[in-house]
């Protein structure tokens, strides 16, 4: 895509992207971490990675074994 564009067009795209990034609101990591911890603790009871998946609802459960005779 960049090969089809002039240097001026590429610089304009970069400038537009930088303007978007500058206007993005920032949050302190300490505040974000607290919110993330609260969210994880609140939803951990339903999280299948923590709680596990019931055998009857596990789509990856082996349907049968392999028998070599």
Blueprint of the fold:
Layout: H1 7-23, H2 29-43, H3 48-51
Give a verbal description of the structure.
The radius of gyration is 25 Å and the shape is flat. The relative contact order is 0.05. It is mainly α and about 70 residues long. It has 3 helices and no strands. It starts with 6 loop residues before the first helix and ends in an 18-residue tail after the last helix. The model has no long low-confidence stretch (mean pLDDT about 85). It is found in: Cell membrane. Its main location: membrane. This is Guanine nucleotide-binding protein subunit gamma. Keywords: Cell membrane, Coiled coil, Lipoprotein, Membrane, Methylation, Prenylation, Transducer.
What would you say about this model in short?
This protein is mostly helical and 69 residues long. It has helices at residues 7-23, 29-43, 48-51. The N and C termini lie far apart (58 Å).
